[in-house]
Design a protein that fits this description.
Pfam families: tRNA-synt_2, tRNA_anti-codon
Number of domains: 2
Distance between the termini: 15 Å
CATH superfamily of the largest domain: Bira Bifunctional Protein, Domain 2
Enzyme class: ligase
InterPro entries: Aa-tRNA-synt_II, aa-tRNA-synth_II, aa-tRNA-synth_II/BPL/LPL, Lys-tRNA-ligase_II, Lys-tRNA-ligase_II_N, Lys-tRNA-synth_II_C, NA-bd_OB-fold, NA-bd_OB_tRNA
Strand content: 25-35%
Radius of gyration: 29 Å
EC number: 6.1.1.6
Oligomer: single chain
Structural class: alpha+beta
CATH architecture of the largest domain: 2-Layer Sandwich
Organism: freshwater metagenome
CATH class of the largest domain: Alpha Beta
Length: 485
Amino acid sequence: MSDQPNDLLAARRAKLERIRAQGVDPFPHDFPGVTAVAEVQEPWQALEAGEERDDAYRIAGRLSARRGQGKMAFLDIVDRSGRMQVQARADVLGEDAMAQLVDFDLGDLVGIDGTIFASRSGELTLKVTGFTLLAKSLRPPPDKHHGLQDVETRYRRRELDLIANEEARELFAMRAKVVSTLRRALDDDGFIEVETPVLQPLYGGALARPFVTHHNSLDRDLYLRIATELYLKRCIVGGLERVYELGKDFRNEGLSTKHNPEFTMVEWYEAYADYGNAMDRVEEIVISIAAAISYDGPYDFSAPWPRVPLAQAIKDETGIDITANADRESLVAAIAASDKVSLDVEDRPWPSLVDDLLSKYVEPKVTNPIFITDYPVELSPFAKSHRSEEGLVERFEAFCGGMEFANAFSELNDPDEQRRRFDDQVRLAEEGDDESQPYDELFVQALEQGMPPTAGVGLGIDRLVMMMSGRDSIREVVLFPAMRD
């Protein structure tokens, strides 16, 4: 969105100075006693056209439209709950006050005192008995008829998007409801919300590249966390037994419709449970969120969700059996022989190729929610070995609408096995895998204190909101997404 013409900006600044010259503070400190527009309107839905009441209210919001002048004018005031028409009359306010009110610019923030009535067309309206300028808008708002359509501007200048588009305000109110519903579900089930470090001396808990920063006083490099997993499991070791954290994680990866380098995750860990219990809880929580927001989109969230082993899901879509091709050479040969698969295999380790088969050939085909289960151990350095399938771990990912939104394990709690897994990750790093997990000795020592059987889940809030709102880009559901210069 280009800057407005200088004459428009100059005209608004000139008006600001005139207001000040009249002895009016254009930026007062407060305006107590405001009632939300929706709360004003709710009790009076049955008011008949032309009917007036003495009930007085105070509302506040942005001036979005103005009709009429002289002896009577109608103005629209918008707050986060909705729009309300107000009627200004010179015989009520006086000539000077009336002239001052109708001279306000669109976009100005205004407080209104008035009494309720229904206009001749039946629209609920406040008859203005007093008003206060709350903040002078020095820039014109986006076009009221067409809203703000330019996608780049909507993301870079989210405040303009929220001013212009009621749908944007509704989306982020819905996102807040998703978060509060999730929190309430975990709180009600006895989970404790905790906070762990964002700046970490050693990143871990996922396979991703970190952001690196430098702490001047400590004179050491630190990492923005890529996950909260390792610290939360140390809480389990300490006896908290059911913990969760909802907050930001950071991964230094490419931008896409599904990836923002700063994203919101909830991770929860439950002692004495396994990945089957975790599937049940994810299913229950997502269904409760869909109910809370009155979801009416294309996906069917009703239980039970299908549970399909990863090897079977890949074979169904590609014809490649990763179980029968359990080393890099044979898997590369199977990919080369396939007429359904085209992957860059050069210098790629086996786990990375398997992950690509999943993300490029299985994930995009998913519509309704599904659990894909039982992953190779090489893809899951923190998951517990499968109790009946050698070479696999008890892990699932939840998918819906062509993307993964949750990841969970029966958590590995054998410290010696964890050491071996870390060693394997180090070898993968030496082979060129820049998203492998670094060795974390302090975490292993925590496991040596003893960690009970535990189920752990990571669920992406941004992607969950994408699913629930029908948005196809993560930038739509993040208030201020990362953007190129």
